[in-house]
What we know:
This protein has helices spanning 2-9, 46-50, 73-83, 99-111, 152-159, 177-188, 205-217, 231-235; strands at residues 12-22, 35-41, 69-72, 87-91, 115-120, 136-142, 167-172, 193-198, 225-227. The protein is built from eight helices and nine strands. It has a nine-stranded mixed sheet with strand order 3-1-2-4-5-6-7-8-9. The radius of gyration is 18 Å and the shape is globular. 32% of the residues lie in helices and 23% in strands. It starts with a helix and ends with a helix. The relative contact order is 0.15. α4 links the parallel β4 (87-91) and β5 (115-120). By secondary structure, the protein is α/β, with parallel strands linked by helices. It has one domain (2-168): Aldolase class I (TIM Barrel, Alpha-Beta Barrel). Bound molecules: iron/sulfur cluster.
Amino acid sequence: MAEDIKDWYEPKLQVVEFFRSIDGEVNGFAGPGQPSFFIRLAGCNLKREFGSFCGYCDTAGAQDENTGRTMGLSEIVTHAERGGLQKITVTGGEPLYQFEEVRTLVNTLAQLGYLVTVETNGTVGIPREWLENDRVRIIADYKLRSSGVDCRSLTERVLESLRPCDVTKFILMHPNDLFEVAFYIYDHNPKAQLYVSPVSGKLLPEELELLIESIASIPALKNRVSLNFQLHKLLGIK
Ligand code: SF4
């Protein structure tokens, strides 16, 4: 009977995978290289809400909300405990696709003393209590035009809620994308830390040089924006 009640009340999440690795990207805590236990959740809202997925998506296997396995909150927490690390990264797909369930998961993990980074695509409102919890950091994308997804007006409202300890990440397909980043910063003066992240392997060395030179000279970017690379991809690890 007790099990039946637990089944009834316990939030269930669709989980693609767990793994231990390093955070390959900026994470709001110690940064790239910090060992972390990853929880990858299923589902992404972009195609349903905005007509397409990101052209550069590297987690296409997590876009479908039915992929992976349905797991109860306590089973997920048990996996996290077995991971043996204080740092946890909740990613996707889009983790906030399972809004109420992931909200409970992150609140539970933070309450248990874990440091939790949530990687989100910036199109779903961030739960208020996460923004009041020092153990939770948000890494939110700003989808530029080159992503193939037009969600900017919604994203701009979501990003307004971020704190100075959170991060906004702009994924670049081309150095020219920086002008769109500059206009956003100029118009919105965001509080969060700002990183531009070239799609892995996409830019030529001379384009990277141009990118760095542009960051150092465009007034809205200078002393405000840093480069972010996917360290795990450079190392050839998960
Ligand atoms: S938001 Fe993330 S999971 Fe969804 S299409 Fe874009 S990169 Fe892929």
